[in-house]
Structure formats: structure tokens, C-alpha cells
């Protein structure tokens, strides 16, 4: 794993990948590098305008690459269902699902379905997407699901009695809980896949501190100019590039021998450097919490993994 970089990505010809939030940052880089190695890549983006701009840019950077765009708003379960239906109409396989998109430290708000924005987008949207695409994943040999978490999961365990963080909302508390949910989902998904005898690998990754618009988007949208400036300074002087930040995702998605329920991040202090196994909070390996979160997520989204019953 030491020194692993994009040159080590195996040939991806014949494989199909879906990358959520692929119009910028980590998602864009991951999608571009998969396309560069021959994969057929679907950019799953909320904004059609930004998605088309990313599509045009990527086609210029990877001439001859197979890259397409489908709209996906993870904060709207109707959009998630529409995306899955549109995908199934076009593709007969799914080798790689990268659950990358997300929001960070935003003001308290609600998704289209009434869930707290960060939990609803970062966890429930991807939970539903994975469930709806599960039949294709299970029917594709050696498929993988890679879900993006964050070192910020260490900030907070989920509260199964207050998944919306409604009792005492804090933007960073809610973000940390959503990232813990991403890891618990990966843990429970890996357990259920193993129980079903499937060779699909469920793994997680995080980019460390990478310079993307994730840090500034919330502050910019809310007009918090001082916070936006602070984040921009951090991105400029302390963060690694989006290209470097995408390496853990790409490793988890393509490297041989990635174990189920792995958590891959930058080697140096979970901050920067080549991909390595990353520390994780013990509560993200709690079987009972993973099972309960799964059951409640199925109930909240209406999406059930019928082939992966506990």
C-alpha cells in the first residue's frame, strides 16, 4: 500500500462505475481516473448545470473516455428512485458504486422528505441508492461499494433515538453523526453480504484534509463570510490537493485484496499522504447499532435490501 498512486489502478475496461457528487472535488478526480483506466463512468450529480460542465471538462481531459451524466439529488428520495430506474434502463451491470457526495456542517434544515439535511443526504440518500441498485451489484462479479466517511466521525456517535439531532442541533455534531452512520452502514452491509455468500466488497474511505468546495459550500450559501475565508485559507496552506484526497477512495475501489469493511484514509495522522488502513471509532464496529440503524433506515426510506435480509 505504501506509495500507492493512480498509476497503480488496475485496468478498468469492461467495468461500469457510478460516482455520486462527481462534478467537483474528490468525486470528480475519482471519476476521471476511473475513466482514464477504461471504466464506463456515470457522473451522478444534483446540479445538471454543474454536471454538464464537469462532463465537458472530463471528456476533454480523458479523450475517448466513456463518461455520462445522470441527475441525482440525494436529498430527495424521489430523485434517488428516478436515478436508479434510469440507470437500470441503460446498464445491465454495476461494478463499482462510489457513495461520495455529501454536505458538511450546514445550518439546520430538512431534505425534501423531512429528514435533517446532513443525515438525510449523507446517509439516507446513499442507503436508498445502494439498496435500489443492490440487485445489479449482486449480479456483477467482484463488484464494490465504497462509501465516503470522514475523520470527523470521531466527533460523535449516532443517537438511535434522535437520528435527526433535533434535541440539540449543532452543525458539526450532525455532520459527525452522519459520517458515523456512513461507517456503520458499511459495517452492516459487509456483514449482510458475507451472510448472503456474496463476493461484493463494501468498504469505506476518507480523504483526510483535502482542498475541495465541501469546506466552503455551506458557509458561502449561508453568507458566513468569515468562516468561508477561514476555510479558504486552510485549503490553501494546510490541505492536500483533491487529487491526493481521492487516492483513498480509488484504492478502496480498485486495489486488489481490499477486505470487506475496510476503512482507508491518508497515512499521516488521518490528514495526508498515501492510502493506508485508517483508525476508526469503536462504535462504528458495533454490530447491534449497525443492525438497528439499518432497520430504521429501511423504515425511513422505504427501501429494503430484499436479497440481504438479516
TrEMBL record:
A Pfam family annotated for this UniProt entry: adh_short
Keyword Oxidoreductase on entry: yes
Protein name: Oxidoreductase
PANTHER family linked: PHOSPHATIDYLINOSITOL-GLYCAN BIOSYNTHESIS CLASS F PROTEIN, PHOSPHATIDYLINOSITOL-GLYCAN BIOSYNTHESIS CLASS F PROTEIN-RELATED
Organism: Streptomyces neyagawaensis
Keyword Transmembrane helix belongs to the record: no
NCBIfam families linked to this entry: PRK06197.1 (NF004846)
Domain of life: Bacteria
Taxonomic placement: Bacteria, Bacillati, Actinomycetota, Actinomycetes, Kitasatosporales
Keywords attached to this entry: Oxidoreductase
Family of this protein: Belongs to the short-chain dehydrogenases/reductases (SDR) family.
